[in-house]
Amino acid sequence: MLISRYHTQTAAKSIIWVGAFGTLAMMVWILWEVLREGIPLLRLEFFLDSPRQMGRTGGIFSTIVGTMVLTVVAVLIATPLGVGTAIYLREYTRESKISRMIRFGTDCLAGVPSIIFGLFGFVFFVIFMGLGWSILSGGLTMATMILPTIICTAEEAIKAIPNSYREVSFALGGSRWQTIAKVILPNAIPGIFTGVLLGVGRSVGETAAIILTSGSSFLMPTSLFSPVRTMSIHFYMLAREGISMEMAYATGAALILLILVINSIANWLLHRYVRKLEGKGHA
Amino acid sequence: MPEKDKIHLTKFSSFYGETLALREISLSIRSHQIFALLGPARSGKTTLLKSINRLTDLIFGVRHTGQIFIDGQEVFGADVVLPDLRRRVGMVFDLPTPLPLSIFDNVAYGPRLKGITQKSRLGEIVEKALKSAVLWDEVKERLSSSALRLSGGQQQRLCIARVLALEPEIIMLDEPCSGLDPISTTSIEESLTNLKKDYTILLVPHNIQQASRVADQVGFFLSGELIEVGAVDQIFTRPRDKRTEDYISGKFG
How far apart (Å, rounded) are the C-alpha atoms in residues B79 and A74? Predict the structure, then answer.
């Protein structure tokens, strides 16, 4: 039996349409569910007060601080490493055994479940290096976790830069490093930024790996060696241990808002940077 | 005359992997003149230019035999510092290649790499270079706007200005007018004629007529071989080789 071209066209369109709107609907539904339950409980004190009675009352201030600091530590460690690896792979070496091995390694790393990273972090950072349950242990563990994403996006960004830019820079007397610093990196930054943002999202949302490496103390951290409880872990504890479903929802809503704020600020910064890069001000 | 030779090639051959790109080229190019490299596509002209400033180093699997000298110094010698060589031998590519920077920053790119940071000094260099490339009057009001917003002809003159800002000794232009309209082409040809007072110019013209308009000496290349070299009048009126004559008269190409 032949199906007319018109019908296949309609069928394909419907499937694509359902796919696209199904995704959107799912996202809206999840957001709606969490925000509907959580937002009414969000008060200023909730953000500025620390948890009390295991989180049954009080706020989430210490967990916000913990989340931010841990994420910053992870990103600060993973970004230079990841970008450095990407530069090495793209600018300093051709396809070779070593580059293929590095790529294979990062691909594998990207597929490892987070609980395994947690276990590794626990054995290596917490116990072997003696960092204990701390922001540093958690940050280092998260750094190893987000490294593949950053390498991959940075490599794509560097790959996308036209070869003529390199040629021009070399032809004008640029050394390899000057070319990287003045042409390659500035033009790759928007792409690298995307990778870093994905890393931020992953750090903010991670629970398993962080429970194993940073502990779950909700006391206000005082140094990089303090244990912390991030917002995701707080959420998990509140819900899993039946402490307070209401507070769990409120924390979830705050977490979503935090991610929205981070993404908006990041997008704004990126937009400003791209405008500046293409030359408007500055002579 | 040999003391006035700026560039000298002895039996220079170049290969991409197993493919021969240039076969035993021996050639002398005098200073303060425009030398045109004439020939159909894939005859090795670009490879020759990129060998002189060693941009061929960037291409994987290129090797060479023979020698290239600039003022008696071997280009492939162990003591050559590549950035210095490339500052001495500036190159303009066939398509305009402005960097995604402002007009000012594009021209100041080379001088800054050399370590010049003083603003007033950079300003002087940029102004002088843009004036020599006949672009200053069109862009002096908007030096800080993006070079990508210039027209194709302006972008190509910007690329010439960028090379001039290096204060090179030799300028190589690889079909600099290939994407340009006749008016832009004329203005670029005029600036070339002005520039030869101070520089040695190697030009791959984008057609035979351009060679006859601007060149002093012409070398005719075919399939990686240098068929014939001579003064522009001689090449165009009394070519010695049949293949040169056929190419000039448009029988192939």
Answer: 45
* pLDDT tens for each residue of B121-151: 999 999 999 988 888 999 999 999 989 889 8
CA gap A276, A48 in Å, rounded: 36
CB-count exposure of residue B89 (10 Å: 0-12, 13-18, 19+): buried
Our CA-based measurement puts residue B239 at a distance from the nearest CA of chain A, in whole angstroms, of: 34
Percent of chain B with pLDDT over 70: 98
- Domain of residue B169 covers 2-248
CA-based nearest residue to B222, from B183, B252, B186: B252
Whether residue A169 and residue B109 make contact (CB cut-off 8 A), yes or no, is yes
Indicate the residue of A169, A178, A279 with minimum beta-carbon distance to B144: A279
| Domain-embedded: residue B253 | no
Out of B58, B95, B147, whose CB is closest to A279?
B147
Residue in chain A lying closest to B159 (CA): A168
Tokens 């704004």 belong to A268
Q: Please report which helix (H) or strand (E) contains residue B218, including its range.
A: strand B217-222
Straight-line distance from the first to the last Cα atom of chain A, in angstroms, rounded to the nearest whole number:
69
- The answer as to whether B196 is a domain residue is yes
What HEC string does B156-205 produce? Answer: HHHHHHHHHCCCCCEEEEECCCCCCCHHHHHHHHHHHHHHCCCCEEEEEC
Name the DSSP letter for residue A180: I
Between the CA of residue A154 and those of A78, A157, A190, A272, what are the distances in Å?
Answer: 12, 5, 9, 20
Interface test with B, best of A168, A185, A273 (most B CBs within 10 A): A168
Number of structural domains (chain B) is: 1
Query: Is B106 inside a domain boundary?
Result: yes
Using DSSP's 3-state secondary structure scheme, residue A135 falls into helix
The domain that contains B12 carries what CATH number? 3.40.50.300
Q: How confident is the model at residue A282 (pLDDT cuts 50, 70, 90)?
A: very low
Q: Chain B within 8 Å of A281 (Cβ-Cβ)?
A: yes
Radius of gyration of chain A (CA): 23
Domain residue ranges of chain A, discontinuous segments joined by +: 5-41, 44-277
Superfamily of domain A44-277: MetI-like (1.10.3720.10)
Domain membership flag for residue B224: yes
**Could you give the 3-state DSSP secondary structure of residue A79?**
helix
Looking at beta carbons, which residues of chain B come within 8 Å of A178?
113
Do B125 and B116 meet the contact criterion of CB atoms below 8 Å apart? yes
